[in-house]
Specification:
With about 325 residues, the protein is mainly α. The chain has one domain. About 70% of the residues lie in helices and about 0% in strands. α7 runs parallel beside α14.
Length: about 325
């Protein structure tokens, strides 16, 4: 493969499929479908499939709102200068954090062995990353971490409260998420994502099934779905309470891309034959999207204490027990 062909394939994979444009366009349309389903559940018509495009267009035309935070007295010039510097830094952060999430999702998607993925190093074992499962799993966490950072940048206590809630739940489900993602790799003895996806022996299918269910238990936390997000009584609009204009549009876009990206990741890693079969790939992705959509629409708000106890008392011990069993099975 020539250098030009390598660059063209890499550019196509990152920008078009399965990278930015695929995640962005499909994510916006799927968000419209999710809202339509949620509306029907609540007994109303719900918005159209194109509502997401209209919302983003409207937000990109609005001015950027920067949280004011603490305003020092006018006579204190040093404090005034420090506050101005903080506001300018906050302005850049409001743009940089969602953009970093979008870039991370697009980069993580090109590492996945999907049908039709032209990423030049995907089928080249000599130049393969070797630990692309680790890289992809960490890249897909960037938007969730960005939501915590956005909450800390907020000028109101409501956004900071929502960010703290997200952080606590992410810590609570860190062990189950790690065991779910790396369980098949532990059983196989490789961190190569393509090797993990292609492993379809009967024991590996059982490992993938259990790890897949554990992964689905972590998705509501990672995606900040409505039952586990800050309720309107606690934090108004959550971490977006102080956002407006283009930063809010970028945050929404990253959030919609994230839902699709993690569903695709679920299909590739845990659904057998999805890495080279379009039907299994689409079916696995739809399963992930359907489960997150149903949880978001049908489940009521869960208190932070109850959610925290569920993951610490039940999910974490179950994940650790499953990890020990996997380790013993590998040794035997």
């Amino acid at each position: 493969m020539s250098v030009v062909e390598t660059l063209l394939r890499a550019f196509f994979a990152w920008l078009i499929y399965p990278g930015f444009l695929f995640l962005a366009l499909a994510g916006i349309l799927l968000e419209g479908l999710r809202r339509r389903f949620a509306g029907r559940v609540e007994g109303r018509e719900g918005p159209g499939l194109w509502q997401g495009f209209f919302e983003l267009g409207k937000l990109f035309r609005r001015p950027t709102l920067v949280p004011a935070g603490y305003e020092p007295p006018e006579k204190d010039t040093a404090a005034q200068a420090l506050a101005a510097t903080r506001r300018e830094g906050s302005r850049w952060g409001l743009f940089a954090i969602p953009v970093a999430g979008i870039l991370a999702l697009s980069t993580g998607a090109v590492l996945l062995p999907l049908p039709g993925n032209l990423w030049p190093y995907l089928n080249n074992s000599a130049k393969a990353l070797g630990a692309d499962l680790l890289a992809a799993s960490l890249l897909f966490l960037v938007p969730a971490i960005g939501a915590v950072l956005l909450g800390s940048l907020g000028g109101s206590v409501y956004s900071q409260l929502a960010g703290a809630r997200i952080f606590q739940l992410l810590v609570a489900c860190a062990v189950p998420y790690a065991v779910a993602v790396f369980g098949p790799a532990l059983a196989l003895g490789k961190l190569d994502l393509r090797a993990v996806a292609a492993a379809d022996s009967l024991p590996m299918l059982g490992v993938k099934a259990l790890c897949g269910m554990l992964f689905l238990l972590c998705l509501p936390v990672i995606l900040r779905l409505k039952p586990l997000s800050a309720s309107s009584g606690e934090a108004l609009e959550g971490v977006t309470n102080d956002l407006g204009g283009p930063p809010l549009a970028l945050f929404y876009l990253a959030q919609w891309m994230e839902r699709l990206a993690l569903s695709v990741f679920f299909a590739v890693v845990f659904v057998p034959f999805a890495y080279n079969n379009v039907i299994f790939f689409i079916a696995g992705t739809l399963v992930g999207l359907a489960i997150t959509g149903i949880v978001d629409a049908l489940f009521s708000h869960i208190r932070l204490r109850d959610a925290f106890n569920f993951y610490l008392r039940y999910t974490n011990p179950a994940a650790l027990a499953w990890l020990v069993l996997l380790a013993l099975a590998v040794k035997v």
